[in-house]
Amino acid sequence: MEDKYKTTKEKIAEELQKYALDTLPEREEKGLDEKTQRLVRDEANEGLDAFFNVKIKNIHKIIKKQHALKIKLDKKQEWQKDTYQRFNIYFRIQHMMLFSSVIILIITGLPIKFPNSPISKFMMSIMGGISTQGILHRIGAVLLIGFYVFHTLYTIFNRDGRRDFVQLLPKPKDIKDIFQMIKYFFGFAKDKPKFDRFSYIEKFDYWAVYWGGIVMVGSGLIMWFHNIALSYFPKYVYDIAREAHSDEALLATLTIVIWHFYNVHFNPSRFPGSLVWWHGKLTKEQMIDEHPLEYERILKGKEGKND
Q: Which residues contact 98 (CB under 8 A, 6 or more apart)?
């Protein structure tokens, strides 16, 4: 009785479920009218078309993804083929330790130097007050001291560390390069100076950190352990350490933000930033442009090995 009231759509739905197993003669034997058979056939064909269209689209997407991945891998291999390892993993770890500690020290230290600034008050509220600020500042200090210990051991015991230290020593050529660069900027020289492994800019960065570290760590330890320090030194030594720590911190912050960030990240040739601190590599073009003397020495070394 219920079968009489089934709509054509319901009959089609039932038939579609068996379409893959039933043959056309079997359907005719079931007594379906011609119109229903035609609708079943059309609906089934549309369903199959939709099924295969989805499959084809999915396959097309997979092929496109594989093709894009291949292009990416090819570019990566091509990039690696024409890159030069400038800094090893130990050097890069030191740099990460340094900038991590400096960021912590700047964020936690400047609110103490400028306590009435709205930004300082806001930063203090985020940090949870002076007690938490002091703990965070000391954590940054310990990380900075750890960096200097690591760097000293690296310079003494690692061959690359000893090589870099010698290369970073100021030389008469650096003075010539400064004047050559000034003439180049003002259009009085056709070519930039040719730099070796480290330019005068990078040497300034290094020795600024070196000297700044001695001042910051030394004065910071005097303030941190003031009871011990005052048992050996007069009060004015503590006062000098406090002023030196404060002023050197501001000088270091300005040097990093204005000098270092521009030369390494905001320079038009490097914007929006350099990732050498992460992978330690330069491309062939970068080596030729920024360190041509080192590049020539590397090529000569390769030619000597091949000979």
A: 144, 147, 209
Place of tokens 């059309």: 42
Q: C-alpha 155: how far from its chain's center?
A: 25
User: Please, where are the H alpha helices in 158-199?
Assistant: 159-168, 172-185
- Report the distance separating Cα 143 and Cα 114, nearest Å: 24
| CA separation for the pair 165, 120 (Å, rounded) | 38
Could you report the per-residue pLDDT of 92-140, keeping only the tens digit for each? 999 999 999 999 999 999 999 999 999 999 999 999 999 999 999 999 9
- At residue 85, the 3 state secondary structure works out as strand
> Residue 262 is encoded by which pair of tokens?
């521009």
Contact present, 220 and 245 (Cβ < 8 Å): yes
Q: The whole model's pTM is what?
A: 0.71
For 178, how many CA atoms within 13 A lie in the half-sphere containing its CB? 10
Yes or no: say if 224 and 191 are a contact pair by the CB < 8 Å rule.
no
